[in-house]
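Case 409 in the screening queue. Each case pairs one protein sequence with one candidate compound; here the compound is 2-acetamido-2-deoxy-beta-D-glucopyranose. For every case the pipeline is the same: read the inputs, emit a complex structure as tokens, and attach any notable structural observations.

Predict complex for case 409.
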Amino acid sequence: MAMARMRCSRQSNPHRILVVVVLAAVLLLPVVATAAAAVVAVAEGEGENRSAARQWATGKDEGELVAGEESGGGGGGSVVEDEFAGGFGSLDSMLQWAIGNSDPEKLKEQADGVQKLSEDDLLKRRTEIKELMEKLKMPSDADLMKIAIADLNNTSISLEDRQRALQELLLLVEPIDNANDLDKLGGLVPVIRDLTNANEEIRTTSAWVLGKASQNNALVQNQILGYGALAKLVKMGYATSTEEAVKALYAISALIRNNVNGQEAFYSENGNAMLQHILVSSSDVRLQKKAVFLVTDLADFQLNSGKSGLPFLSDSVFLKSLVDMLSRFDLDLQEKVLLAIKSVLKLSSTEATDFESCDLNSVLYRLGVQLEELPSEEQKEYAGEVDELRREVQTLFQNKLKEGTKIAL
Ligand SMILES: *[C@@H]1O[C@H](CO)[C@@H](O)[C@H](O)[C@H]1NC(C)=O
Ligand SMILES: *[C@@H]1O[C@H](CO)[C@@H](O)[C@H](O)[C@H]1NC(C)=O
Ligand SMILES: *[C@@H]1O[C@H](CO)[C@@H](O)[C@H](O)[C@H]1NC(C)=O
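Case 409 output:
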């Protein structure tokens, strides 16, 4: 699947098509000749395989492909490439057939007097065909990554080609083995460099690639952190383009997830100020949800690991911006904010009184009323779940307040 998409995505890159076409022109001719000989040999003896033979005989020839390539250019190239992809399929079945029917014993028997090839010739041909099939195999992921990386490393490449190379890497780094190879192949440096590209789309896709590659992968996380990419990503979190900020936040989350070094770097790069900025100033709910989700994730990591490296999670101004978000009329956002408050409340560094001073109690009460009154029929069930969570947070908050009072007494 990834391969198929890959092939489509590189469809209009002229020099790549040219490589494929030249390769095909060199390799196809002898194969076609060999296979055709076998086809004729059998077809003469067997009426039933005539149609198959005709189908191969009218298959693509390389002249057509080269002509298409020359006039193809940008958009037109896609048609050529698609046809060519189809050509691979029939070539494959042709070779399979040719090998199956090149069995010396079988052929000898079938073609009898008509067959003029010696057994040695047939064996030799069979080996040749096998070798050709090996050569015609699709390039490996590493090959494809090298091509994309070489493009990214080339400063004179067009923006369109750069974007395409990034899109290709985006798919290629999904398997963990490929992600592990990215730095070895020299890919991380040019991708990180593109985080500061003048083009917004390039910056956005670069962040996306880094997030994808570092997801659940401590090795790649540390490599990217080692190159100092976090500072650039934090800056991107302030982007006016929602898409850019969303992808930056996605990359940051993937980069520092369960990673103490990453979280410390996030703090020292003032990532918390960026988060705060999104919570307070963004008008985009999707971006806010991502920011709130990151808060929950960081708090949960502290709770589970017992490591406390992020004092901002308990900062009173930060807590206030979380609580204020409960007044936004978005059920999904409200649920995510409640989850964040729940996790942050559990941190020993968080003072319940800080939540008290931003009026968490009445905010939760008002939310309860809203959840009861507002939801439409189809949202009722969801609203019920969110309300349950709201009660849980309220209880947690009350208990923490009581504990605090006890200690104070
Ligand atoms: C005819 O060709 C098909 C492949 O298309 C092959 O599987 C089949 O064995 C051939 N029939 C005979 C009688 O050789
Ligand atoms: C860089 O890209 C340009 C434009 O596509 C191309 O002409 C040039 O050969 C490339 N350089 C390398 C080293 O691949
Ligand atoms: C990228 O280009 C630089 C200098 O142009 C070169 O030193 C480096 O080896 C290249 N990296 C890759 C992966 O091609």
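Case 409 observations:
- Residues 14-45 form the longest helix (32 residues).
- Confidence is low (pLDDT under 50) at residues 1-27, 29-89.
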